[in-house]
Write a structure and sequence with these properties.
This protein is of the alpha/beta class and 320 residues long. The protein contains 11 helices and 12 strands. It has a 6-stranded parallel beta sheet, sandwiched between helices. The termini are far apart.
Amino acid sequence: MKGIRWALAVAVTLSLAAGKSEAEQRRRVTRVKGTIGLSVLTLTNPFFITIADSMKAEARKHGYRVIVTSGEFDVARQQNQVKDFIVKNVAAIVLCPCDSKAIGPAIQEANEAGIPVFTADIACLARGAKVVSHIATDNYGGGKLAAEAIVEALGGKGDVAIIDHPVVESVILRTKGFRKRLGELNKKPGVNIKIVAQLPGGGVRDKSFKTTQDIIQAHPDLAGIFAINDPSALGARAALEKAGKADQIVIVGFDGQPEGKRAIKKGEIYADPIQFPDQIAVKTVQTIVKYFEGEEVPPQILIPTALYRKADAEKDPTLK
C-alpha cells in the first residue's frame, strides 16, 4: 500500500513539474521584448502589405511585435500615428514617409522622446530629423535599369514621358537615375531618346490614367512611358487601351508586384526593375535588433533591383 502511495506521489510530482515546465515554455514564447511601431505609405499597394507582413514575421523571431498603421498618402495622418506611437512608448518607430520633407517634425518629436526612428523604402529629407538607419531599394540604380529597358524597347529612338510622384524620396531617386542613364545612353551611336513630359500620377492607378490621357493628347507621337511604380504603369496601360494606342506606346514600370508581373507576361508592360520588399522588411528588423544590442549600424542599406522582362515572367513559378 505504501508503495502504491509513493508511486502516486511521484507521478503527481512529475506531472506538476511537467506542467510548470510547459507553462514556463509558453511564457518564454509569448514574452515580448518590446513593440515596434510601423507606419507605411499605403496598404492599398501590395508592396507595402508585403513590408508589413514580413516585418511582423521577422520581428516575432526576435521577440518583438509590430503595430502596423498606414498614412494612406496623408502626411498629417502619419504624423498623428507617430504621436500615438510615442504615447504607447514603443521601442522603435519605422516609417515609409508619405512626404519625405513634411514628416520631419514628427520624427523630431520621436527623437525628443528618445525613441529611435528607422525608415524603410522611402527616406526622410527633412533637416533636423534624426533617422538611425534607412533601408531601401537602390532606387537610383533601379531608375538606371528602367532607362536601359526603355532604350532596348524602342530600339534607341523615340519620345518618352515620365509619370512621376515627386513628393517621396524613393521616386525622386528613380527619376534621377532614369534621366542620368538616359543621358549617358544618348551619347552612344544610334540612340536618340527625348523626354518630352514629366507629370505627376500620384503613384496610383486612377490618377496615372488621367495623367497619361493628358500626356498622349499633348504628345501624339509619344513612343514610350516610364511609370515610377506598377499602379502608375497599369493606369497608363488602361489609358492607352482606351485611346487605341496600346500597341504604339511601350511602358516600363517599377516594382515587380504580382499584377505588374502578370502584365509583363501578357506583354502589356515591357519590363520592370523589380524590388524585394520582403528583404527590405527583414533587413529593417535585423538592423533594429542590432541597434538595441549596442552594435553600430550603417546609416543606409540599399538592396539592388533586377530587370524583369517577359522572358522572366514566362519562367516565373509564382505566375503559373
